[in-house]
Structures are given as structure tokens and as C-alpha cells.
């Protein structure tokens, strides 16, 4: 049996965004960790959220549901949400299920922060 682990560490960014760095495997065993981290993250128009998935090695449908919940929370609070660092396999899955219709994707945190800054201008 594989020991599945996930970490989700919030890091304030000088731009006022919160970067939530996620690493490990996101599945039905570990989804509660990300759910809790999202619940504890402030979502507001003044505090955009960037979820960094660069170190995510696996994501199942439960994990996708958690990310969609983050999107819904951002919408409720009129906050910007950007996902960054999706690997090619996860990017393909997100496109197949149509999540590219609701999420904004960027390659890196810096690219996401630049996009947020450009939107404020």
C-alpha cells in the first residue's frame, strides 16, 4: 500500500495574493488536507489566490472536485483564482472535462502574479 501524502502550504505574496503551494497526491485520501487549506485561505477582491500545482504528482476526480469548490468559493467572494504549474497530463484531463472553461491557467506563479497585476491596471 502506498503512503499517500499531500501538503498545502499558504504563502502570502508581496503582490497581496495568497499562493497555496500544493504537493503530493490529491485523491480521496488526501483531499481533506486541501479542502481545509482552502477553507482557511482568505478569498476577497483584494486578495487573489494562486494555487500552485507544480509539485502535484497525481489528481483524481475527488481532487478535481476540491479545486472546483475553490473556484466556487472565489466566485462567492468576487476573488480572482489562478491555477499554475499543471503537468501535461493534468492539463489534458482538465481540458477534456471542460475545466479550462472556468479556470485560468498559468505556467508559473510569477506569470500568474503578472496576469493579476495586468488585470488591475
Describe this structure in words.
39% of the residues lie in helices and 28% in strands. With 121 residues, it is α/β, with parallel strands linked by helices. The chain has one domain (8-120): 2-Layer Sandwich (Transcription Regulator spoIIAA). Helix 3 links the parallel strand 4 (81-84) and strand 5 (104-106). The model has no long low-confidence stretch (mean pLDDT 93).
Helix content: 25-40%
In DSSP terms, counting alpha (H) and pi (I) runs of 4 or more, how many helices? 4
CATH architecture annotation name: 2-Layer Sandwich
Cα-atom radius of gyration: 13 Å
Order of helices and strands: EEHEHEHEH
Mean pLDDT: 93
Q: Which descriptors would you attach to this protein?
A:
121 residues; single chain; 4 helices; alpha/beta
Provide a brief overview of the structure:
With about 120 residues, the chain is of the alpha/beta class. The chain has helices at about 30-40, 60-75, 90-95, 110-120, and strands spanning about 5-10, 20-25, 50-60, 80-85, 105.
Write the layout of secondary structure elements.
Layout: E1 6-12, E2 18-26, H1 31-40, E3 49-59, H2 61-76, E4 81-84, H3 88-96, E5 104-106, H4 109-120
Parallel strand pairs: 2-3, 3-4, 4-5
Antiparallel strand pairs: 1-2
Amino acid at each position: 500500500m502506498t503512503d499517500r501524502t499531500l501538503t498545502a502550504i499558504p504563502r502570502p505574496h508581496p503582490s497581496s495574493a495568497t499562493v497555496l503551494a500544493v504537493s503530493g497526491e490529491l485523491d480521496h485520501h488526501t483531499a481533506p488536507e486541501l479542502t481545509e487549506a482552502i477553507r482557511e485561505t482568505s478569498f476577497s477582491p483584494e486578495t487573489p489566490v494562486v494555487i500552485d500545482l507544480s509539485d502535484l504528482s497525481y489528481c483524481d476526480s475527488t481532487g478535481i472536485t476540491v479545486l472546483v469548490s475553490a473556484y466556487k468559493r472565489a466566485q462567492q467572494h468576487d476573488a480572482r483564482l489562478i491555477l499554475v504549474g499543471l503537468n501535461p497530463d493534468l492539463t489534458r484531463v482538465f481540458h477534456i472535462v471542460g475545466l479550462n472553461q472556468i479556470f485560468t491557467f498559468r505556467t508559473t506563479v510569477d506569470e500568474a502574479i503578472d496576469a493579476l497585476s495586468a488585470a488591475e491596471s
